[in-house]
Amino acid sequence: MPSWIRAVILPLSGLLLTLPAAADVKARSCSEVRQAYGAKGFSLADIPFQEIAGEHLRICPQEYTCCTTEMEDKLSQQSKLEFENLVEETSHFVRTTFVSRHKKFDEFFRELLENAEKSLNDMFVRTYGMLYMQNSEVFQDLFTELKRYYTGGNVNLEEMLNDFWARLLERMFQLINPQYHFSEDYLECVSKYTDQLKPFGDVPRKLKIQVTRSFIAARTFVQGLTVGREVANRVSKVSPTPGCIRALMKMLYCPYCRGLPTVRPCNNYCLNVMKGCLANQADLDTEWNLFIDAMLLVAERLEGPFNIESVMDPIDVKISEAIMNMQENSMQVSAKVFQGCGQPKPAPALRSARSAPENFNTRFRPYNPEERPTTAAGTSLDRLVTDIKEKLKLSKKVWSSLPYTICKDERVTAGTSNEEECWNGHSKARYLPEIMNDGLTNQINNPEVEVDITRPDTFIRQQIMALRVMTNKLKNAYNGNDVNFQDTSDESSGSGSGSGCMDDVCPTEFEFVTTEAPAVDPDRREEESSASKFSSSLISWSLVCMVLSLQRLYR
Q1: Which helix (H) or strand (E) holds 180?
Q2: Could you tell me the pLDDT band of residue 208, with boundaries at 50, 70 and 90?
Q3: Dist. CA 173–CA 167, nearest whole Å
Q4: Of 185, 226, 383, 522, which is most buried with the most CB atoms under 10 A?
């Protein structure tokens, strides 16, 4: 056969062989794609009835396709929207945990303070009557400052408590010495003797330690819940990069364009896409886990030595105990003050006629603990802490696990049991590339998503810094220190390990300290005994050692 004939026949035969196959491809229907596309809410006017040439496609394989340019654009936006919703759904647990628990703890602490103030007011009105009501602003100011500290006010707790006891000493000193007139300068001198004379016994020192540590822990813990809530809310609202959007479109909707709308992505293929898209979120994980660990440590403090509920519930009794100590040692205190500040001027005749015992001779009805108002939602701090600890532990590694959680969703992938009949980015077959490790730097060779590892997400870095700052605050609170007001004294500096308290620094109970009074005439002794009867009733249900001490006084 002549060569020219061969040159004509061979190309013709090749053409004849390829024509039927091409005709078959062109004849493939897009009916399944049209149905799936319409189910997404899109207009069927965009989609052809049969496959068309795919040279116009910018993301999906440029082969015969059921997708027009308009379809590819719309499905690309749809993939972005679905990805954003998936991340928000997957992080729903951690977000609702911080939102709901912040609300619960904040409600609890606020109501605890309100109840403690109401309890003290009710008790003192019944116990001290008009004397308390005339001086109630001293106690009201105490609770006002405690509330202001809790809500983020710039309050130095130790200075505020020292001021409270100094003011209380000034008021009581006038009440136990009504026969004298005291100027402002004289009363200021009196307040300077608070630490030296210890007129209120050991109550102020121990209460200061307990109040400062419990309030620091409570406020910092709620601030931690606030930061966790804000970080979780912000990070869950992702803004995918153009490279991520291309990869999402290719994974989720290029099967539509290939006429395979029911074929879902391979699991490992999904993991590489998600790890590339969520690379910066994964970098949040290290600081997030440190933050959760610090929250758990402070939660343990709230259950134990820094339990604000165990401090605030009986604060009325503790303050009343301090007042009783002042009464019992009033003569010694007065004598030492007169020695240090000078002899005061006598008061006008009308006022001096009223003696101290008459001022304090008040009938007292024993206080029933059952009358104490319940705290928020009838719950307790221990129950709240137990609940939050369980949920905090579950939120660890939440950001690095996002790709795995999303790719386990049966709505997204074909699952791990169907590795042969899944979409691998090009066709229905096994996905072969290896799975990338977590984090931004590990995406340098990600086969699915173009990731610039030299440009970390600024927004995520801001959240990392916020967590770092909060973790530092929590560590300080764990040790009993406020980052704004760290005290270097032995009494209030915390230990970095164990319970954070020494036996003589963080007592679980108050010791009752008495001082022997100087000899007085029988009439005076009888009046003092009458003046202190209400106090013995108050603490009759308290510690056994306190009761025994009182009994000794009355013999």
Answers
A1: strand 180-181
A2: very high
A3: 10
A4: 226
- Dihedral of the CA atoms 485, 489, 491, 497 (nearest 10)? 80
User: CA-to-CA distance for 24 and 8, rounded, in angstroms?
Assistant: 26
Give the mean pLDDT of the chain: 81
Q: How far apart are CA 216 and CA 221, in angstroms?
A: 8
Percent of the chain with pLDDT strictly greater than 90: 67
Counting every residue written for the chain, the total comes to: 555
Determine the pLDDT at residue 191.
87
* pLDDT reported for residue 11: 47
- Map 9-39 to HEC letters: HHHHHHHHHHHHHHHHHHCCECHHHHHHHHH
CA-to-CA dists, residue 288 to 98, 227, 460, 466, 470, angstroms:
13, 11, 12, 10, 10
Pairing mode, strands 180-181 and 345-346: antiparallel
Of residues 240, 266, 268, 289, the one with CA closest to residue 399: 289
User: Which pLDDT value is given to residue 395?
Assistant: 95
**Structural tokens at position 364:** 């007292």
CA–CA separation, 425 vs 430, rounded Å?
10
- Minimal CA–CA distance to 312: which of 105, 102, 119, 506? 119
pLDDT(366) > 60: no
Residue 391: Cβ-neighbour burial (10 angstroms; 0-12, 13-18, 19+)? middle
Indicate if the pLDDT at residue 359 is higher than 90. no
Q: What are the angstrom distances between the C-alpha of 205 and each of 13, 101, 408?
A: 104, 33, 57
- Beta-bridge mates of residue 542: none
* Nearest to 474, CA basis, from 288, 287, 295, 231: 295
Alpha helical stretches, state H, 304-421: 308-312, 315-328, 330-341, 349-352, 356-360, 381-394, 402-407
Distance (Å, whole) CA 430 – CA 528: 93
Q: How confident is the model at residue 375 (pLDDT cuts 50, 70, 90)?
A: low
Give the model confidence (pLDDT) of 422-440 as tens digits: 999 999 999 999 999 999 9
DSSP, residue by residue, 88-139: HHHTHHHHHHHHHHHHHHHHHHHHHHHHHHHHHHHHHHHHHTHHHHHTHHHH
Find tokens 């590819």 and name the residue: 72
Contact 194, 336 (CB under 8 A): no
Spatial distance between the Cα atoms of 210 and 530, rounded to a whole number of angstroms: 32
Alpha carbon distance 460, 281 (integer Å): 7
Question: What pTM did the predictor assign?
Answer: 0.77
Contacts of 139 (CB under 8 A, 6+ apart): 117, 120, 121, 124, 132, 319
Residue with the two structure tokens 């609940």: 387
DSSP category for residue 179: T
Average pLDDT over residues 151-164: 94
